[in-house]
Amino acid sequence: MLITPAYAQTAGGSSDFLVTIFPFILVFAIIYLLILRPQQKRIKDHRAMVEAVRRGDTVVTAGGVIGKVTKVLDDSEVQVEIAEGTRVRILRSTLSDVRSKTEPAPKEATKDAPKAANDEDAKS
User: Fold this and answer.
1) What parts of the sequence cross the membrane (predicted)?
2) Domains parsed from the chain with CATH numbers
3) Which pick of 83, 92, 103, 111 has the fewest CB atoms within 10 Å?
4) 108-120 average pLDDT score
């Protein structure tokens, strides 16, 4: 008997493929739910915030500079006043936060104001 019992045993049964890959699927699902999905939501919220910037908003750039938007130049640039009389052009993508938003003028008030003035003139 030259063959030892350790070598004479039959090969181990192969486990099911699904049981083998299940831990990897579980780890990927946890990473997606805890890391990737919240990051996508943050990116979407930041993009909406940057697109909604308008004149008069106080903003913070990625470098930490705080200023007031004086002019929206185009879809990718805004003009920001960082000190009295100092205006710089910056990319919207470098905005990290909008500190205070200005309220838009109500459309009814702007439309009714000239109309009300004309009504008063007509009554006189």
Assistant:
1) 17-36
2) 22-100 (2.30.30)
3) 103
4) 52
CA–CA–CA angle 71, 73, 76 (5° rounding) = 125
pLDDT given at position 62 = 93
Residue 105 banded pLDDT, cuts 50, 70, 90: low
Confidence category of residue 16, pLDDT binned at 50, 70, 90: confident
State whether residue 91 is helix, strand or coil: strand
- Rounded distance, CA 69 to CA 2, Å? 88
Q: Which two tokens stand for residue 33?
A: 């739910």
For the record, the structure tokens of 102 come out as 């200005």
Bridge-based pairing of strands 86-91 and 66-72 is unpaired
Name 98's Cβ contacts closer than 8 Å, sequence gap at least 6: 49, 52, 53, 57, 58, 59, 60
Beta bridge partners of 90: 78
